[in-house]
């Protein structure tokens, strides 16, 4: 399998139309499998950790979908899992943009700031939605011990620096999972650079019996392309 196929192989879900993933825009949503965190509250656990259980969406079907649907869409949302981990991501985004001629918004947990910076500098992503999971001290518990408080702080501070220089390209969200108090949310809000706000997403408990149900805020994931 070549590197191009390995990257496209992560594309395991699609929502043909979403009115809530990019505020003010109608987008389709592509779900990329794999994640670097292990959040116990994850709704998208198969997409994050067991993407092999989900069907691959063929690249040519995706490009055909984009060519046919682009005229009714304002943009393309790329989510996961954690999409910044996908091999050859820049080439995939380039092909999505070429087929759709649409701007791209990407969700990220913010733990790969160098990739975010790279994508921004290449002009491949117009908008990043970054999840700030809570106070740094709670990151080990929030991420299944995947990152320390210090690693979370270091990575997010790099993202905040990027946002300060590119204020139109970022917004920040938090999902109020059960271990977060109101004070925790305010602590996380206090990390943001001047001029940014933290959007609070309601937490919906995962339904573990459903194979690939939703993201942390409880949104359904489809896998059909038409
Ligand atoms: S909630 Fe997001 S960052 Fe956490 S494991 Fe799931 S997909 Fe990864």
From TrEMBL:
Cofactor: [4Fe-4S] cluster
UniProt xrefs under Pfam families: Radical_SAM
Origin superkingdom: Bacteria
GO molecular function, one term: lyase activity
UniProt name for this protein: Pyruvate formate lyase activating enzyme
The UniProt record lists the keyword Lyase: yes
Organism in which the protein naturally occurs: Desulfovibrio gilichinskyi
Record flagged with keyword ATP-binding: no
Radical SAM core domain ranges (all copies): 21-226
